[in-house]
Design goal:
By secondary structure, the chain is mainly α. It has a single domain (20-122), classed as 3 helical TM bundles of succinate and fumarate reductases (Up-down Bundle), CATH 1.20.1300.10. It is built from 4 helices and no strands. Helix 1 (19-50) crosses helix 3 (65-92) and helix 3 (65-92) runs antiparallel to helix 4 (99-124). The chain is extended and about 65 Å long. The protein starts with 18 loop residues before the first helix and ends in a 5-residue tail after the last helix.
Length: 129
Amino acid sequence: MTHPNRPLSPHLQVYRWQITMLMSILHRATGIALVVGAFGLAWWLLAAAAGGEAYASAAACLASPLGKVALFGFSLCLVYHLLNGIRHLLWDAGWGFEIPEVYRSGYVVFGLTVVLTALIWIVAMGGAA
């Protein structure tokens, strides 16, 4: 039995975006991206195991501009997902539930994601010897 005057359940347009909402969505999206990246990692490992020509082809693909963008995105997703997972583990331990701490830890995760990803790429590109 339906009620014609019943309100519709709220949708994303109703809610005001908050950092907690954004971080939850990004955690799920980065998890999906990491699954896709794991297939790429498996492809690279299989190419390395197959020998010279297969590995050279895989290495050339990853060294291309599109390959570097994919590797950068994978590393960004990996760092964010790791840091946000640690944040969730701290919540599981009972730390950081007050609203100011939730927001502060969210901004810390975003900031550290940028810094650590940049450091990874500086070291990987040979900038910090």
